[in-house]
Amino acid sequence: MIAPPDPSRPVPPGRVRVDCHVHTVESGDAVTTLDQLAERVAVHRIDVVCITDHNHLAGTPEGLSRAIGARAVLGEEIRTRSGELIGLFLTERVPYVLPAREVVELIRAQGGIVCAPHPYDPLRAGVGADLDAMCDAGLIDAVEVFNAKIADPEHNRAAVRTARAYGLPGTVGSDAHDPQGVGAAYLELPDFDGPKSFLDALHEAEHRGEYRPHAPRYTPGPPAASRPGRDLGSRGRSSGSA
């Protein structure tokens, strides 16, 4: 059993609280503005947020960190022909609907890491059917072992079993698409300064999370011109949402 979130519990020195899977209005199917994300990050005392908008890079780590009042890891949730993958520590947007192997190569070419989100949830487009083969081929760096939007805990448990079978670390994420979802799941792990140390730290992470339903998918966000954070040095534009 995973422990529930507890924002009142201090994070031990040398460790940080990380939500590995968060969406903003830039995803197209999410409603959270950067101002709202900043408010929720403060409430839940989250130190690091991995912003993983669909098929889009939301800005720069420096600009996003200033906007949300916490360290930002720039990522992307990418639709591939096998299902969705997350790239973290990205510098350039990865195109969508490419073969999964090509997406992995594009993520790693820029020093990023590859995570398999919600692989076995039948309501979301994970890579579950191909995950064993991808892990066996060394294409996956981490598996999302708890996603707070998954109603059936068996789907999360299946991800745990696969991660353990291949000796891969697990990530945890709220997969928040609305402000109320932020803080539903996070890791507490040793502080890190890049992709390699993040992967190392994942092996020492404490997982916390709870199921938390989210706002209806495809709820329109604010008009593009009014969205906060559009001057943050965005390096890519969305080509659709998954």
UniProtKB/TrEMBL annotation:
InterPro entries: PHP_dom, PHP_domain, Pol/His_phosphatase_N, Pol/histidinol_Pase-like. Residues 206-242 are annotated as: Disordered. GO terms for molecular function: 5'-3' DNA exonuclease activity; 5'-3' RNA exonuclease activity. SMART domains: POLIIIAc (SM00481). Pfam families: PHP, PHP_C. Residues 18-82 form the Polymerase/histidinol phosphatase N-terminal domain. This is Polymerase/histidinol phosphatase N-terminal domain-containing protein. It comes from Planotetraspora silvatica.
